[in-house]
Design goal:
By secondary structure, the chain is mainly β. It is built from two helices and twelve strands; from the N terminus they run E-E-E-E-E-E-E-E-E-E-E-E-H-H. It has one domain. The model has no long low-confidence stretch (mean pLDDT 82).
């Protein structure tokens, strides 16, 4: 039995007991999380395909830790132009162990409801919406001091000769 989940814009084929690395999630080590973006669930006798996600399905996973991936070298090069840029990158990762696959409130392994309540995964935190009253909008903002800076203007030879 396996499921296909989506996390961090990527899709992963997972089975119970499997360990996988996904893009960094804002979760502490040792916590159980619930991934509700399940695209497909399949076992020996049936398959559930979502459009785009399977309804009432989730994958429960435990966070084993945070780590950084293997270093990747990014090398840009343009022939005959003396352009060479070498950059390195290491991806931030979260290590997960898949505990259970749940469909319609029942575990596909045991056939019962899952024991532990897992936290839903929040991929990106959204900024809270702020509302302002009419009085706040009409009130003038506090005056702040603006430091005036002067920049020296470059002069060309033609300008400097006319100034003299």
């Amino acid at each position: 039995m396996f499921a296909v989940i989506k996390s961090g814009g990527r899709q992963y084929k997972v089975a119970v007991g499997q360990t996988l690395e996904v893009n960094r999630l804002p979760v502490e080590d040792g916590k159980q999380i619930s991934i509700s973006e399940v695209l497909l669930i399949s076992d020996a006798d049936r398959s559930l395909v979502g459009a785009p996600f399977v309804a009432n399905a989730e994958v429960l996973a435990t966070v084993n830790g945070q780590k950084r991936g293997k270093k990747v070298i990014v090398f840009r090069y343009k022939a005959k132009k003396r352009v060479r840029h070498r950059r390195g990158h290491r991806q931030e990762l979260t290590v997960l162990t898949i505990d259970d696959i749940v469909s319609e409130g029942k575990s596909l392994i045991t056939g019962e409801a899952p024991q532990a309540k897992a936290e839903p995964v929040v991929e990106e935190e959204e900024a809270p919406e702020t509302t302002t009253t009419v009085e706040e909008q009409a009130a003038p903002a506090e005056a702040t001091e603006v430091k005036k800076t002067t920049r020296r203007r470059r002069t060309t030879k033609a300008e400097s000769s006319t100034e003299e």
